[in-house]
């Protein structure tokens, strides 16, 4: 009996804690369904979590005030390209560093590791000059190409491949597969967790990219979602309900992706020792 | 027709480890050659060099009289069974068997036919749709074998393929491998550290120690005429007893072989033959099988020993006794020799033991079976 109370107490306190973390998301979701005027007024009270008179009015507003589908498409396209190209390039690089013998490998790899500690903000301005010279301003390419090769992703693949049994590749080589065939047929299928981790991490970074798109684009044509939501803060009148609605629609794909790949992602984190 | 030749092969790893030194071995067509030696002697390295997984530091490697030093693994047309099998975990047994065939770019029909054939041969047909992790150790081993033979390669390489199996299964699969190899007549290089496996399986056995070839010949010859002390101690279960001896003159200008308190007088002919070794260090070797009950009819010498321990094997027993060699007797030549001094000697006797630990008993000896080794550890002969 005593045990029951202890367990209940623990469960309740954990629930409370969970609520604390989920609250902002819940606020956003509920707020997005409320008439604009009530969002701020009720923000400080428990009513903030009460969606009476729910309507999709705000969602409609978002579409009428900005070209939401444009932003959405841009974000999906840019992020998708970076993720797919990034997986290919970084996996191959990681493989070359972990398993192939070539002159200067260790030196190049230490250079890659050095890049790990350079934040984008530090090189944003020179990079900006560079892409301007190339005439890449206001394009998709400028938001994709610089982010394909990624030191962290390479490192992640590198550690994962190191952990795969060497005999697998050796068996494949002896069975008559070349380097590329071995990579595609043997390595990739056994590295799903690594691919999932890199895909999700890349996706998250790209999905919320703000600074760089801000610098190199102007106008809605090629801008991604984070710049779209920012536009609402500068677009009078300031409508919190609309911002929330925009936010919900922006977060939804991320959640969906995470739910789909959750199993692999957890495996990947366990296998590569990377903390999210 | 496939022959394999190692010509003066050496291997030094990047970190400076010398794994193989000046290794020469000719393997003839269809032969099952076993490489055997203690852990770390370079067996795997030799195999991996032949497979193309490891570069050759110097020397020439020939398959069918073609130098293959710089060929990639897939150009060599060999197959390998790994110690941990290295099955592709994401593929079913069928896909595993088909993989090498697909790499040969055979048509789909042929791929399926050959995979089915091999599965049938190895009794894998009911397991074709299983993944490797759903198989037992023995079944995995068979799949690995199947993946190797399905291509009908020029050479099979096997690196301790049985070491992950339990004793019974090991025996069974060992026989299967032998039968399969004899039927397919594929030149095979088989690595093991187990001398029993080597002796029972090999057409010929190459014994390696510290990266050097010690002796290569048929199993029986290895047992009967070991080229040096290492081989003598390595082959046999247990191996040969080795001990230092001295030659001393006794009456009538005859010599006697002396160790510890033991003295074995020699006849005139034997004295003659050993004359030139007087004053030089000599080692003697006696197989455990050379000992007899003291009253056995073929025992031509007797020694007195103190029993250290007894291991009964049911139909026979092993008798361990003190090696009565005083170190002062022959100068210690090498650390190994001193080791031999401290090791107990062992005799293999039929029946069940009738003495107890600590007892002093007499043992008969068949002197014909005494081997003599010179200081350089080479076999002088069993001249007696
Ligand atoms: N990649 C490597 N780099 C450096 N040294 C190595 C490498 N591979 C093997 N060696 C060394 O070479 C020697 C021979 O190794 P090898 O694996 O051929 O031994 P082995 O006879 O197969 O032993 P075991 O019976 O334990 O498998 C050992 O001393 C080992 O430490
Ligand atoms: Mg080995």
Description:
The complex is a heterodimer of chains A (276) and B (384). Chain A has helices at 2-33, 36-41, 57-65, 68-99, 105-116, 120-133, 141-144, 151-163, 166-174, 179-187, 192-207, 211-216, 225-234, 240-272. Chain A is globular and about 70 Å long. Chain A has a single domain, classed as Orthogonal Bundle (MetI-like fold), CATH 1.10.3720.10. In chain A, 74% of the residues lie in helices and 0% in strands. Chain B has 384 residues and is of the alpha+beta class. Chain B is 27% helix and 32% strand. In chain B, the strands form four sheets. Chain B has a six-stranded mixed beta sheet, sandwiched between helices. Mean pLDDT of chain B is 86; it is low at 326-340. The A-B interface holds A 165, 167-168, 170-178, 181, 185-186, 189-190 and B 51-53, 72-74, 78-80, 82, 84, 86-90, 99-100, 103-104, 147, 151. Bound molecules: adenosine-5'-triphosphate and magnesium ion. The site of adenosine-5'-triphosphate (ATP) has 13 residues of chain B, from helix 1.
What proportion of the residues of chain A is helical, as a percent range? over 70%
Q: Judging from the principal axes of the Cα atoms, what is the shape of chain A?
A: globular
What is the helix/strand order of chain A?
HHHHHHHHHHHHHH
Q: Please, what is the average pLDDT of chain A?
A: 87
- As a whole number of angstroms, the C-alpha radius of gyration of chain B is 25 Å
- Greatest chain-chain contact: A-B, 17 and 22 residues
What kind of assembly state do the chains in view correspond to? heterodimer
Quick overview:
The complex is a heterodimer of chains A (276) and B (384). Chain A is an all-alpha fold.
Layout of strands and helices, then pairs:
The complex is a heterodimer of chains A (276) and B (384).
Chain A: H1 2-33, H2 36-41, H3 57-65, H4 68-99, H5 105-116, H6 120-133, H7 141-144, H8 151-163, H9 166-174, H10 179-187, H11 192-207, H12 211-216, H13 225-234, H14 240-272
Helix pairs in contact in A: 1-14, 3-14, 4-8, 4-11, 5-8, 8-11, 9-10, 11-14, 13-14
Chain B: E1 4-12, E2 18-27, E3 32-36, H1 43-51, E4 58-63, E5 66-67, H2 73-76, E6 78-81, H3 93-103, H4 108-121, H5 137-149, E7 155-159, H6 167-184, E8 187-192, H7 195-201, E9 204-209, E10 212-217, H8 219-224, H9 229-234, E11 241-249, E12 255-259, E13 262-265, H10 268-274, E14 282-286, E15 291-292, E16 301-312, E17 316-321, H11 335-342, E18 345-350, E19 360-365, E20 370-374, E21 379-381
Parallel strand pairs in B: 3-8, 3-9, 6-7, 7-8
Antiparallel strand pairs in B: 1-2, 1-4, 4-5, 9-10, 11-12, 11-14, 12-13, 14-20, 15-19, 16-17, 16-19, 17-18, 20-21
Helix pairs in contact in B: 3-4, 3-5
The complex binds adenosine-5'-triphosphate and magnesium ion.
Adenosine-5'-triphosphate binds next to helix 1 of chain B.
